[in-house]
Amino acid sequence: MRPFDYVKPADVAAAVRAVATAPGAKFIGGGTNLVDLMREGIETPDTVVDLGGLPLDGVEELPDGGLRIGALVRNSALAADQRVRGRYPMLSQAILSGASAQLRNMATVGGNLLQRTRCPYFYDQAAACNKRAPGSGCDALDGFNRGHAVLGVSEQCIATHPSDMCVALAALDAVVEVESVRGTRRIPVADLHRLPGATPDVEFELAADQLITAVELPPVPVAANSRYRKVRDRASYAFALVSVAAALEVRDGAVTAARLALGGVAAKPWRAREAERLLVGGPASEESFGRAADAELAAATVRPGNAFKVALARATIVATLRDLTHGGSTA
Ligand code: SF4
Fold it and tell me: Is the pLDDT of residue 328 over 70?
């Protein structure tokens, strides 16, 4: 690992000052992704600004009935929070489906939002990868791309975003609060992660000196009946082939409210707005759920290795909505 300076700021103001005055600096929370990337030589910060100990580790009620989650709240603590389990079960389930218990005990909410793709070529310095080395090419396009994206892809990159938590946050219209020496900014989670386009190396709508300090969840009544369903190659400690975060309200056989987001299929948590639009007002039937899924997936661009994801995503969407129609939410 390349040598780096280590800074331990006393407060948030000192943390953002430290990064603003040290180009090439990186914030570190739980370190569960950044340390791996530094070991592999993918990330090479000159300075690491350790956020441990800053007062960003609480979950507070908001006046409107939502929750404000500090960026340093551990994934395991957030998943276990009774308010999250009761009001946003899809979020608790999503977190518990990710990584291992040990990693969830270390990983923070802010770090989870900013974790980087697990595309194997991105981690392989001998491979061509436009995300790691812009302009070098993309070995995944004609390589082993079983786990890669089918929505929002470009000819420069077909990597997926690996987070489960972020899929639920996108479905819940969560908002990220960021701090820098220029002040405070609020960014909808749906806008935080970028699609690859011609610049897959630019992954976030976030400047390098901006620190995520909190995530706010608005009140989402339909989320009380919600679920996160993850399909993967083994039962634990695996990234999603496809995942679905869904919430549904059904009255007299008709859908009156719906939230839907997909994971494992795009470079960002994929909010399925077209499917939501078709679901609301329609019958709560498998046929209707299938039509909504088909509409959302119509724009898929597949490769031989990942073409199966379209049918898998359709089936997972339909199955999750069917469970919710029958009150299948558990946290
Ligand atoms: Fe790199 Fe993206 Fe291609 Fe993977 S899919 S090799 S991350 S450019």
Answer: no
Q: Which domain holds residue 314?
A: 222-327
Q: Is residue 70 part of a domain?
A: no
Residue 154 included in any domain: no
292-321 per-position pLDDT tens digit = 999 999 999 999 999 999 999 999 999 999
CB of 263 within 6 A of ligand 1: the answer is no
Residue type, 4: F
Secondary structure (3-state) at 239: coil
Quick one: which atom of ligand 1 is closest to the CA of 132? 1
| Pocket probe mutation, ligand 1, options 124, 138, 201, max atoms within 8 Å of Cβ | 138
Q: Does the residue 104 lie in any domain?
A: no
DSSP characters over 43-74: ---SEEEE-TTSS---EEE-TTS-EEEETT-B
Indicate which CATH number applies to the domain containing 30.
3.30.43.10
For residue 245, CA distances in Å to 131, 176, 261, 264 come to 27, 19, 5, 12
Which ligand 1 atom is at minimum distance from the Cα of 129? 1
299 CA from centroid of ligand 1 (Å): 20
CA contacts within 13 A on the Cβ side of 9: 22
Tens digits of per-residue pLDDT, 23-42?
899 999 999 999 999 999 99
The predicted structure's pLDDT at residue 330 = 42
- 47: CA distance to ligand 1 center in Å? 26
Measured in Å, residue 200 CA sits from the centre of ligand 1 at 8
How many structural domains is the chain composed of?
A: 2
Last residue of a domain, one of 35, 53, 71: 53
Output the domain CATH number for residue 319: 3.30.390.50
Asked whether residue 257 is assigned to any structural domain, the reply reads yes
pLDDT, tens digit (0-9, with 9 covering 90-100), for 185-203 = 999 999 999 999 999 999 9
Whether ligand 1 lies within 6 angstroms of the CB of 266 is answered as no
